Description:
Layout: H1 5-17, H2 19-25, E1 29-33, E2 38-42, H3 45-54, E3 60-64, E4 72-73, E5 78-79, E6 89-96, E7 99-107, E8 114-116, H4 118-123, E9 135-139, E10 142-155, E11 158-167, E12 177-178, H5 183-186, E13 187-192, E14 197-202
Parallel strand pairs: 7-12, 8-11
Antiparallel strand pairs: 1-2, 1-3, 4-5, 6-7, 6-10, 9-10, 10-11, 13-14
Amino acid sequence: MTTTPEQTRAIIRWGHQHRRMLRSRYRRQFVAYSATRLLAAGRDWDLVETLATAAGEPYLVKWIPAQTSEFQFFWFKFYGMARHEWEPEYPVTLSHGSVSHNALMLVDSGAELSLISLEIGELLGFRLADGEILSDGTGVGGEIQYVTRAVDLTIDGHSFKAPVAWLQTEITDVPLLLGREVVFDLFNIEFIQAEERIEFKWRGTPA
């Protein structure tokens, strides 16, 4: 379901206000919510979207990781306890082959690549090829292995293909991350933390 910028901000605001409840009750599940209530939750991404659509309200879908501690260590970045608890999320459609899903992604200017967990990649239909070589990454969170996949992303009606790091290491607190590669070339992105919102302005396809 398409949402206006105003509806998107209102829905994200509801999610922020109820994030502790969502994190405690719906770990390792997709949750769909409107600006006023939770509409659906579960492990089946398709079913959650179907139930939310049937409710007839503008909604967004978010993946709740298995662990959501105040300190989260990732190989690409460290998230500490911030004074401002706003999470810079934005609705994105992820597509691979015949599979297409809408979800909130955490916009991370510090991540070179967009990133998805092992579990989310499998739900999108990714599979490792026989003998495929894994890439290694090292950072403050330790060592990980990943492979790169091309994913069709749609943001504010603009569709494009971008590389995504698909983790092959089991990390239970990985969100859907929207990184710089391709995305930041196609959009001017402004973080307005005081108003808890992000603005994506389309630049067009680079020459």
